[in-house]
Write a structure and sequence with these properties.
This protein has a single domain, classed as Alpha/Beta hydrolase fold, catalytic domain (Rossmann fold). Helix content is 40%, strand content 19%. The chain has a nine-stranded mixed sheet, with helices on both faces. A hairpin with a 2-residue loop joins strand 1 and strand 2.
Length: 257
């Protein structure tokens, strides 16, 4: 059920809704009725990172903090999560806000949560956008690259603590405000890191997803992620591939159908 603390400011609702056992903070813009777009952020991010996309989209747009990030809750202690758990949060949020069937857009780990909802809760979604989905089960050759990245993070933790590791993950070009918020949410980042490999997905299950899905990459996408996107899109019954990184254009096109 939607929290009674939700407040409406200039057609923006700020509130809390019950996820799969945790409170999820969200922001909703646009009209309260009609088709909704739900934005699901990546690791070391939060709902605020979607602000430029949300402002550019017409209609009802919902962005939320995944568990452990921003204003959302998490179990204590919070050391681990799974893609399934993240998907249950997303499905509960869509139901709690009366947004089903929604157009779901996720980046990184958020994309895996969207894909899992499309697979297990098809009534919750009318389509999906997967941005840089780390579906490395379909890219065995990525193992060496992933091992090197984990070793880099472990070194950063030893050198400067969890917050430093999160900052290195985001990179020197990241927005300082985003980095500062991500440092504060370091426990959620490391829970996410362990959850990346928890999605068990077969080719048959991908082929059974009937909703339209766009798999999107861009100029900054890592080679292993781009290769995963190429391989996965061919298995989706209504999959489309885009490589220009234009999130707003893709969502606008999907919403128009």
């Amino acid at each position: 059920m939607r929290s009674t603390i939700a407040l409406r400011y200039n057609r923006v609702v700020i509130g809390v809704v019950e996820g799969a056992g945790v409170a999820l903070a969200y922001e909703e813009a646009g009209p309260p009725d009609g088709p909704a777009v739900v934005l699901v952020h990546d690791m070391a991010a939060d709902a605020r990172t979607w602000a430029p996309v949300a402002q550019a989209l017409a209609g009802r747009v919902i962005a939320y903090d995944r568990r452990g990030y921003g204003g959302s809750g998490a179990p204590e202690p919070y050391r681990a999560t799974t893609v399934s758990e993240q998907a249950e949060d997303l499905a509960a949020l869509v139901a709690g806000l009366g947004a089903a069937p929604a157009l779901l857009a996720g980046e990184g780990l958020g994309a895996l949560a969207v894909l899992d909802v499309l697979r297990r809760h098809p009534a919750a979604a009318r389509g999906g956008l997967l941005i840089d989905p780390p579906l490395f089960a379909f890219v065995p050759e990525a193992t060496q690259e992933l091992s090197a990245r984990r070793a880099e993070l472990e070194g950063a933790v030893r050198a400067g603590g969890p917050g430093e590791a999160v900052a290195r993950w985001l990179g020197a070009a990241a927005d300082p405000g985003c980095v500062e918020r991500a440092r504060g949410d370091a426990r959620a980042f490391f829970a996410d890191l362990g959850g990346l490999a928890t999605l068990s997905l077969t080719r048959a299950e991908l082929r059974a997803i009937a909703a339209p899905v766009v798999v999107l990459t861009g100029p900054g996408t890592a080679p292993a992620v781009r290769l995963a996107a190429d391989r996965v899109v061919d298995l989706l019954a209504a999959g489309t591939r885009a490589d220009d990184g234009d999130v707003v254009a893709v969502l606008s096109a999907l919403a128009a159908h």
